[in-house]
């Protein structure tokens, strides 16, 4: 029972530091209202930014694919786990991103780990923002390349690091929208720097896909950098409401990754029904601009409301952090909001740095103005009585 003793000691330590987390299974589909523990709550903790996770057209596409393809894919794609649903989705994603190819992965984590560890290795250098997602951090570590971490969004410090590490293959990886702060990377400046220094650029668009850009293809599209960012990772499980991820890139890069990315080569592929659902969600995104219009309106409304309460709020994405410092403060605020019928999870270390525990509001196109107002009123009440 050695491992059990390790676990018990660690659980006790986490609990004493207000860092222990528990699973809370939903009793309903994702949406602006969810059923949890017998309660119906307004959901501000989901990354379902366009409200597509329970969209009838998306569900119907999955049902049809189940009848055609069955449930599981049966193997990795290089064996017999490929299907028409995979190929059609990749073609649609490439057209959406304006790239030669798009390559599916089973998750954003699998995509980042697989791509980074394939492209660079011992003797190479990968440059990574200090607040990059954990999947990028793990991809850097697994690559066994030299990892040069630069202060968050600090282009001058990054340039100095690039000059100090001139050898081998060099890759810069950054989130476009940072998942816990909701701010944007200075992508235009990063692209200029990579061009000048001869560094490949990879951008994780997980929280920008479906949200930013004229067509919803992300911050790279919004800034017109499509020809200068060689690899763009997007997820299917956030704004597109399904599951999985993809990398939009050139045809040679897709062919290379198909043969070398271990998270693709050695994983059973996505179920075809998931691919069909994601394809239907992508079609909704491309043909129904009202989804993104409603989301933008909600982002503007909520940012103005938070600023009115004295909180910092840029409205640069659908993510709105309310930093509260200690884990206990975040837990207190989350509990106060929950009593008012609002589900806003407390985000604590190690997800965020020590001293920056917070509430993380994630907005959806499906949220109503009344629901946004309820959240703002709940925050105001907590500040008056519980902070």
> Low-confidence runs (pLDDT<50, min 5 residues)?
none
Give me the CATH superfamily of the largest domain.
Answer: Type I PLP-dependent aspartate aminotransferase-like (Major domain)
- Overall geometry comes to globular
Strand content: 15-25%
* Main beta sheet: 7 strands, mixed
Count of DSSP H/I helices: 14
How many angstroms does the end-to-end distance come to? 42 Å
Which class do the helix and strand fractions yield?
alpha/beta
- Overall residue-averaged pLDDT value: 96
Description:
By secondary structure, this protein is an alpha/beta fold. It has two domains: about 20-55 and about 290-385, Alpha-Beta Complex (Aspartate Aminotransferase, domain 1), CATH 3.90.1150; about 75-270, 3-Layer(aba) Sandwich (Aspartate Aminotransferase, domain 2). The protein has 14 helices and 13 strands. The chain has helices spanning about 1-15, 55-70, 85-95, 110-120, 135-145, 155-165, 185-195, 220, 250-260, 260-265, 270-285, 290-310, 325-340, 370-385; strands spanning about 35, 40-45, 100-105, 125-130, 145-150, 170-175, 200-205, 230-235, 245-250, 320-325, 340-345, 345, 355-360. The strands form three sheets. It has a seven-stranded mixed β-sheet, with helices on both faces. Strands 1-2-11 form a three-stranded mixed β-sheet. Strands 10-13-12 form a three-stranded antiparallel β-sheet. α7 links the parallel β6 and β7. It is globular and about 60 Å long.
């Amino acid at each position: 029972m050695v491992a059990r003793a390790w676990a018990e000691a660690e659980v006790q330590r986490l609990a004493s530091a207000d860092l222990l987390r528990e699973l809370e299974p939903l009793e309903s589909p994702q949406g602006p209202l969810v059923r949890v523990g017998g309660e119906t709550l307004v959901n501000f903790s989901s990354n379902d930014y366009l409200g597509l996770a329970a969209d009838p057209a998306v569900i119907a596409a999955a049902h049809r694919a189940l009848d055609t393809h069955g449930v599981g894919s049966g193997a990795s794609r290089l064996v017999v786990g490929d299907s028409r649903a995979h190929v059609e989705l990749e073609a649609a994603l490439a057209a959406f991103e304006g790239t030669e190819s798009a390559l599916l992965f089973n998750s954003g984590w699998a995509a980042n780990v697989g791509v980074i560890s394939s492209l660079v290795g011992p003797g190479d250098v990968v440059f990574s923002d200090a607040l990059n997602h954990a999947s990028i951090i793990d991809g850097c570590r697994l690559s066994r390349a030299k990892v040069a971490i630069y202060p968050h969004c600090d282009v001058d410090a990054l340039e100095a690091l690039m000059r100090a590490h001139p050898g081998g293959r060099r890759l810069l990886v950054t989130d476009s929208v940072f998942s816990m702060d909701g701010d944007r990377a200075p992508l235009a400046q990063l692209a200029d720097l990579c061009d000048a220094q001869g560094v490949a650029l990879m951008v994780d668009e997980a929280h920008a896909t479906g949200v930013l850009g004229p067509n919803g293809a992300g911050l790279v599209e919004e800034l017109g950098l499509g020809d200068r960012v060689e690899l763009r990772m997007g997820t299917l499980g956030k704004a597109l409401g399904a599951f999985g991820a993809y990398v939009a890139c050139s045809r040679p890069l897709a062919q290379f990754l198909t043969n070398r990315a271990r998270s693709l080569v050695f994983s059973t592929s996505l179920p075809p029904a998931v691919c069909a659902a994601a394809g239907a969600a992508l079609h909704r995104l491309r043909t129904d601009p009202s989804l993104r219009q409603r989301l933008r309106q909600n982002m503007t409304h909520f940012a103005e409301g938070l600023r009115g309460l004295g909180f910092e709020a840029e409205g640069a994405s659908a993510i709105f952090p309310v930093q509260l410092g200690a884990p206990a403060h975040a837990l207190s605020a989350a509990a106060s909001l929950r009593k008012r019928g609002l589900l806003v999870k407390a985000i604590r270390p190690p997800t965020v740095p020590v001293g920056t525990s917070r509430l993380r509001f994630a907005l959806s196109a499906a949220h109503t103005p009344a629901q946004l107002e309820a959240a703002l009123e709940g925050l105001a009440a907590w500040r008056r009585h519980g902070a």
